Amino acid sequence: MEIKMKFLIKSETLDKLEPKFIEAITLIEKSINSKRPVLIRHHADVDGYCGGLAMQRAILSKMYKVHRRESDLFYYFRRLPSKSPYYDYTDVTKDISNFLNEKERFERKTPLVIVIDNGSTAQDLLSLKKLKLYGAKIIVIDHHPNNPGNDEFIDVHVNPFLVGGDSASTAGMICSEIANNMDSSLVTLPLLCALSGVADHSISDMTNQYLKIANQIGLSEGYIRQISECLDFEVHHIGFMESRKFVEDIFFGDIKKQKELVRIIYENLKIQKENFKKIIKHYKETEIVNNMIIAKIDLKKINHRGYPPNGKIVGILSLMVKEKHNLPVFAMGHGSDFITFRISSQLNFDVNKIITALKEKIPYGNIDGGGHAKAGTIRFIPSVKDEIISYLKKNLIK
Does 26 fall in a domain? Predict the structure, then answer.
C-alpha cells in the first residue's frame, strides 16, 4: 500500500524528509506484521521521551491488531531510556544479551531497534556496528549532526541534517510526525511536539506552529513550559527504567491528575531553582569580552550529584547572566575531566567542531564528547584540562 504523508504543520524540512519517513514506517509495519520484536532506545531527556512515547503509542496501536493476546505486547515491545546522550556501549551490550536470550528461549526473531535522539554521531558508531553484527534491523531518528560512517550500519536514518536542516527539528517532532502517519487518532501528538521543542530550546517556526496547535486544544505556552520543567525532573529520577504505565500517566494522564502533578512538582522546583541561583551567584565567574559575557563555574566546588544535573546548572547560569547583562553569553561549567557549554545562538561556536580541532591539537588527551552546536560537553583526561581552556581562550573567545 502506498503511503502518503500528511504533516501536522508546514515545514520544508519535513517535506524533504518525507522519503525517509516512508522508509521508516514501511520497515516498522513490516516488522510488526512479521512479529519481529521492537525495541526503542531513546535519550533520557524530555525530547527523547517525547519521541519514544510518540513511537510507542503508534507501534502498540499497530501491534494490538497483529497479536492475539494483549500480554504479548510486553514480550514483543520495549522502550528503554539511555542516560548517555549517545547509544552507550553498555546499553547495546545489555540489549543484545537480552534479545539473544529471548531468541534462544522463545524462538523469536532478532528485533527492530529504533534509536531516538541518539544514534547519529561518531560516539554511536561502535554500538551500531555491534548491533548490526548480531542481525538487528536499525532505525535511527535523531537531530544531532550526523557522522556519515554510521549509515553503513543503519537500515533507515531519519535526520534533518541529511537534508540540509538543523537540530531545531527535534527528535520528538520527527517521531510524532511519523506516529501521526501511522495512527492519526493519537490526539496528544501536537503536545509532544510542542513539549520537545520547548524542552530542547528549539527557537524555530516549527516550535511556534506546534505551540499554536497545542494552544488550540487548551494548553498555553506558559503551561507547556511548566510541564516541560516538571517532566525534566521526573525523567531524571526514572533513570534506566521503562516505567511504561507511570510514564504514560505523567505524559498522557487525565488533565486533573496532570495539573495536580505539575502543581506540586513545579512549586518544589521553584524553591530548588532559587536555592541553586544563590549557589551559582556565589561561585560563578564572569567577564565581558568583545561585547559578550564569558561565564564560568567550577562544578567541583558544588559537588552536586542530584537534580539539577550539570547541564541544567550551566543553563541556569547562562540565563542568570543574560538577564543581568542582556548580552550574548558563553557559559561553561567545568569539572576535572569535562567542560559543559551553553552558548547564545548569536555566537560563532560549535561544540562538535571544537572537539574535532582539539583531538588534532591534543591527541594525547583522550578527547571526546558532543551534543548540539551550542549545547554540549567536551570530555578529556584531567591532565590536559588547562591546555583545553587555554586553547578555548586563544581560538574561540575573541
Answer: yes
